[in-house]
Write the structure tokens for this entry.
Amino acid sequence: MLSVCDVYDALTSDRPYRAAWDHERALALLRDERGTAFDPRCVDAAIAVLEHQAAPKVDVVRTTLVPRAATENV
């Protein structure tokens, strides 16, 4: 999700080497890269928020991180 938002922000911001893209052009890139560079669910949610629509329901996956066992060869 953060990658999608970061790319949108980068595209729509002026840079020393290029002018900012407009909203529609940035959304078109996100849609084009949906499923390849970005998780489709993240693109859908970001676009919904950016277009002031109801965001799609996204299931949250919860995991428990388990520390790795200490080894002598680390």
Summary: DSSP finds three helices and no strands in the chain.
